[in-house]
Amino acid sequence: MKILVTGGAGFIGSHVADAAVEAGHDVLVVDDLSTGRTENLPASADFHPIDIRNAKVLRELALHFKPDAISHHAAQASVSVSVREPVLDADINLMGSLNVANVALECGSRLIFSSTGGALYGEVPDGQVAGEEWPASPKSPYACSKASFELYLRAFGHESGLRYTILRYANVYGPRQDPHGEAGVVSIFVQRLLRGEPIQVNARTRQGDDGCVRDYVYVGDSVRANLAAFEGVLDGRTINIASGVATTTRALAERLAVLVDRPAIVNDGPHRAGDLERSVLDPAVMVSILGEPTPLERGLTATTEWFRSQVRP
Ligand SMILES: NC(=O)c1ccc[n+]([C@@H]2O[C@H](COP(=O)([O-])OP(=O)(O)OC[C@H]3O[C@@H](n4cnc5c(N)ncnc54)[C@H](O)[C@@H]3O)[C@@H](O)[C@H]2O)c1
User: Fold this and answer.
1) Is residue 36 exposed (0-12), middle (13-18) or buried (19+ Cβ within 10 Å)?
2) Residue 6 Cα, ligand 1 centroid: separation in angstroms?
3) C-alpha dihedral over 167, 173, 179, 181, to 10 degrees?
4) What's the CA-to-centroid distance between 78 and ligand 1, angstroms?
5) Which of 21, 78, 130, 180 has the most crowded Cβ, counting Cβ within 10 A?
6) Could you list the mean pLDDT of each consecutive 10-residue stretch along the chain, which spans 313 residues?
7) Which residue, judged by its Cα, is nearest atom 2 of ligand 1?
8) 9 lines ligand 1 (CB under 6 A)
9) Residue 56's CB: how many other CB atoms inside 10 A?
10) At what angle do helices 97-107 and 55-65 cross, to 10 degrees?
11) Residue 125: how many CA atoms within 13 Å on its side-chain side?
């Protein structure tokens, strides 16, 4: 198959590109390298440093390649950037994504969209998990742009027969996640622990509590979902890609300190403006089609080992 991966030089997209190459597919990567890195790219993938907002060039490239499926990961992926720059967020995540949808329509490609379960459902009360049927309740421009594009996909599916899959990722973690940004608490903690630097648990409500509650899902589970979607197994579906396990920031910090095997200096920080207190998703649909998610312990071990392998002696 021919697979176009947008954002394929980034964290999740590069793992999808790797797996697609490994599965024997022809892979074309489009990425403007705003947060992605060429080191992440699989050697045999064809790479074009293109902004998805450049409709003309994107179209020419895609019409030439004629992808069977497009795995759309290119995005402004930071909630806090979206709060500061909502127009930029909409420009990339909505207008840029519409260019990708147009290409999918013109080429007859399946479109697999990386949406957000972590931000889309808003606050998930204690004891509950958000299922796909929960109404969208965006609390940030990022969640708005992702939710809006989901609506466009449904409309295109209805009107023009676009074959699409919406993957609502929880908090994805794993090797290659950028520890320098504001997202990716697993990568930030692991890197700081390896360097013997203090880590900070931001409050859920009051300084000194166990921090926000999140659903951490291993990047390999996102990859599995993409590979299945390429085959058409998930056509027309909207699926949470999640573990369903509620983990506080403090529990995560303690577990990582054990895995890194370094004494941890844990500071308590205030609540970070805009952070949801609790986000945990229901993975039942994913489990029924794709099998069980990677256990947290196994995913965190693989991630820790990868970051350790990156430390220069
Ligand atoms: N990481 C998570 O926990 C998570 C959760 C939910 C959804 N997502 C979504 O998954 C996708 C990948 O996220 P990630 O964590 O790998 O982030 P990332 O920043 O590592 O990857 C995004 C990639 O898109 C590229 N990009 C950004 N703007 C572009 C543009 N205008 N044109 C072309 N390329 C552009 C970047 O250079 C980068 O390589 C995003 O759509 C994100 O919104 C991620």
Assistant:
1) buried
2) 9
3) 30
4) 8
5) 130
6) 98 98 98 97 96 98 98 95 95 98 98 96 97 95 97 98 98 91 85 95 97 97 98 97 98 96 92 91 98 98 96 69
7) 172
8) yes
9) 8
10) 30
11) 1
Residue 313 confidence (pLDDT)? 61
Distance 261 CA to ligand 1 centre (A): 31
Query: What does R_g of the chain's alpha carbons equal in angstroms?
Result: 19
Residue 35 tokens read as 């947060």
All domains of the chain, ordered by start, with CATH? 2-171+217-241 (3.40.50.720), 173-215+244-310 (3.90.25.10)
Is the shortest distance between the CB of 202 and ligand 1 below 6 Å? Answer: no
CA proximity to 246, closest of 210, 270, 271, 275: 210
The tokens describing 100, both together, are 């990708």
Active site residue 142: yes
